[in-house]
Amino acid sequence: MAVPMTMTISNLWGLTMIDFFDVRFPAQNLDFIGKSLTTQQPSGALSHSFTEQSVGYDDTRAPKIKLKFNSRSNELRLWGCPLRWLQGQNGLGSNDLPFLVESASTLVFKHLKRPVPESIRLQLRDRSYRVAEVHVAELHRMPHGLIPAFCDSVRRHAPAALHATPSEKGIGVRLWPDSRERQVLMYDKHHYFWDGMLKHRLTLLGKLPLRSWERLGPALNFSRMMDEHLNQGIRIETRHLRNLKTHGLAVGSAWQPGSARQLHYRVLGDVPLTDLPPLTDAEMLLKLASQEDRRLLALWIDGRPMAQFFDSDSTYARWHQRILRTHGIDIKRAPVPCDAARWTNLITPQAVLDTPDWAVESAFVCDTSQAVVGRIRPAAALAWPVAP
Description:
two-stranded antiparallel ribbon, 19% strand
């Protein structure tokens, strides 16, 4: 689903956030990253490699990001949640991948007490690094009390091909959980933070002095995010791996302000779900349909897999087009019986909650818009200062 051309960059950036990235930099002589390992292969040959390294403040509560140098391919891998690393929280954030990669990389080498290597610096400037994985998230408007019922309804009625499974923790459901192409997560982010409130607040506030003005601001903003934003909708997160290459986004220079959002909706548009008609509409539909159509529509409304009632794919395709043309119903998409939460309404751009103005003005989110007004220091740098 393409972003409307009438949208400007200024009102586009805040609608989507990048919650995770995995980027790769061709590089050499980075043997100071990780511990050196020597492994004896079955043939007797010895191979040398380096362990992955978590970079961050020396505290278990502090946000961290991971690095690994592959000496065989001469490649540096950087991966993790840039929002937690830069902001101390990932309830709100930015969709600007190049900005997040550059900010995260700069902070990484500051923690390592080394200058950014020239080869890495040039790739950050040219955005020539490789993008291996990205997670994109938006908060879609939904009454908070409906989230458990909606997730349960999707899990029960989604087609088997989606492999809909409940989240391991909290309230949510996963689609295509084992896919290396793309995945979808729908969950209650408010509940996620509330369930581990003390841990998340300590990560955000870090080493800020107790009862100080520096600590008060982020604490109030966190509470405001919980009370005024995250409890207004359901978090839908799309995870992109091999499909990045398919859509021409496997390199940093390909990412534009609207790329994350377009990628997000391309995946949501592929989810084979639709809305179950309200009871009165369904009754009228069955009453007016022909006998042959009525039988097929009744099976579809009942949530039955439609392909099993046809002898061949061509016959199924012909009836699919007939029902779609006559009644406007796509029988290839399973109906989700949750009248108060309509799937087709939920995944429209109009259903997305925008980033609150106060979060931008107070620098609660780390974004390129802050650089314009001089607020370019990552929020977590105050809570977790780099040790001298």
